[in-house]
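About this split. The held-out portion is used to measure sequence recovery: a designer receives only the structure tokens and must propose an amino acid at every position. Recovery is the fraction of positions where the proposal matches the reference. Here is one held-out target exactly as it appears in the evaluation file.
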């Protein structure tokens, strides 16, 4: 009996020792120091982004100082072996990144010496794709653009402006190809070629929203397009899937649900958001009639939605000539880049970077040029049919239409948003009969 009691006591003691050791080991794991693994810096025309890659979720605090301008970040219970001297040599906003005396022995203090006063945005990012935990610092220029003085004569016979958004950029590589190519590089290459093609055409002007390898926030893209008075926004992307089989191009438009959601936001904050509604914005902002505001805003939204779909269909028609299509009709998805209420907007998936053949083509300059030329043709065709008032295209273009099987005069009139009588008068037609292949002159509206 005594032997059993002794044995039981020994077992209990052994278990307690094991339990203490287990808790101690796990406590060490829980309280293991975080580590700043690397630091990346990206410069954009109006902002700089500094990204700290960390081993675990950051526990941090920050404050700014002036004379001289500095941003001080304290990483709690952290260490690093990063050589900060190699950073910030090519950026004009960040003069130097260095460490400083920490709050305590276990923390790490990092100081960004700045060249001026900037709007500071600091936020953590959870792991995604190839990246782990991150702390992002954004420095935004605070200089407001000078107010634009409208010149009516300058607006006459103006160019049609196309805003081109190259997807991803900077610390956001986008999808990574079957053989390791980055979507952000492919999209920028195609965007540049598209801009070059458009700028060769009389009456067309391209504006690149991203001109280099840096990140532009999604909500900024439509605003930048509006600041440049864009008549159309095109976002260039490359698709991807978990398997290498899917291939081909697609054209995406804003989903009806997202469009209605954005519309509701604009109406709810119409004093602040009136600039998002184009020409009707001032009326909507200043009117005391809520019903009138809703009607005008809804008309703007519907026109933009319809125009986006029409252009997307034209883009697919031209892309089909140079590449395989993944989807033959426009696809509606909820996309932040397409939220402009007053600018027709589409996102073009130029192919699947996860497909070996598509990836090879997307990195081929000759294929990139074919895609750019196809999109250019779609843009030219679209604006020839629907030229914005006051543009060179609307003043000089002579439009014709070749009758296709199944078309009637009423269908053609509806397509060009004119009356059947106008078509008849311009083509000396007595009746309503037309022949397949017949070329009709479409009068200007």
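Reference sequence for scoring:
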């Amino acid at each position: 009996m005594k032997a059993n009691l002794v044995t039981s006591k020994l077992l209990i003691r052994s278990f307690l020792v094991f339990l203490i050791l287990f808790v101690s080991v796990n406590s060490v794991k829980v309280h293991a120091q975080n580590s700043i693994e690397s630091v990346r810096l990206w410069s954009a025309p109006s902002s700089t982004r500094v990204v700290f890659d960390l081993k675990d979720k950051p526990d941090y605090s920050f404050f700014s100082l002036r004379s001289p301008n500095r941003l001080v970040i304290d990483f709690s219970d952290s260490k690093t072996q990063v050589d900060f001297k190699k950073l910030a040599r090519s950026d004009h906003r960040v003069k130097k990144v260095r460490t400083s005396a920490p709050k305590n022995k276990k923390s790490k203090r990092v100081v960004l010496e700045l060249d001026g006063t900037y709007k500071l945005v600091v936020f953590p990012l959870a792991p995604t794709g190839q990246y782990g935990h991150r702390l992002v610092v954004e420095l935004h220029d605070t200089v407001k653009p000078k107010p634009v003085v409208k010149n009516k004569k300058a607006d006459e016979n103006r160019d049609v402006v196309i805003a081109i958004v190259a997807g991803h950029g900077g610390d956001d590589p986008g999808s990574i190809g079957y053989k390791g190519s980055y979507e952000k590089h492919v999209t920028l290459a195609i965007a540049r070629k598209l801009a070059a093609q458009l700028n060769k055409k009389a009456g067309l002007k391209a504006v690149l929203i991203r001109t280099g390898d840096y990140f532009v926030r999604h909500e900024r893209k439509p605003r930048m397009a509006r600041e440049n008075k864009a008549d159309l926004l095109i976002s260039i992307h490359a698709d991807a899937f978990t398997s290498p089989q899917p291939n081909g191009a697609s054209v995406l438009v804003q989903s009806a649900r997202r469009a209605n959601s954005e519309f509701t936001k604009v109406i709810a904050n119409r004093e602040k958001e009136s600039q998002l509604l184009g020409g009707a914005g001032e009326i909507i902002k200043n009117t005391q009639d809520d019903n009138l505001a809703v009607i005008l805003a809804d008309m703007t939204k519907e026109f933009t939605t319809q125009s986006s779909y029409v252009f997307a269909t034209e883009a697919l028609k031209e892309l089909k000539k140079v590449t395989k299509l993944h989807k033959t009709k426009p696809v509606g998805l909820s996309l932040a880049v397409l939220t402009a209420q007053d600018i027709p907007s589409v996102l073009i998936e130029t192919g699947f970077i996860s497909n070996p053949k598509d990836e090879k083509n997307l990195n081929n300059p000759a294929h990139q040029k074919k895609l750019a030329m196809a999109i250019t043709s779609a843009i030219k065709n679209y604006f020839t049919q629907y030229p914005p008032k006051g543009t060179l295209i609307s003043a000089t273009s002579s439009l014709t239409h070749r009758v296709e099987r199944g078309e009637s005069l009423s269908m053609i009139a509806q397509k060009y948003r004119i009356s059947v009588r106008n078509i008849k008068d311009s083509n000396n037609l007595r009746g309503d009969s037309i022949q397949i292949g017949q070329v009709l002159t479409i009068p200007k509206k």
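Annotator remark: Confidence is low (pLDDT under 50) at residues 270-277.
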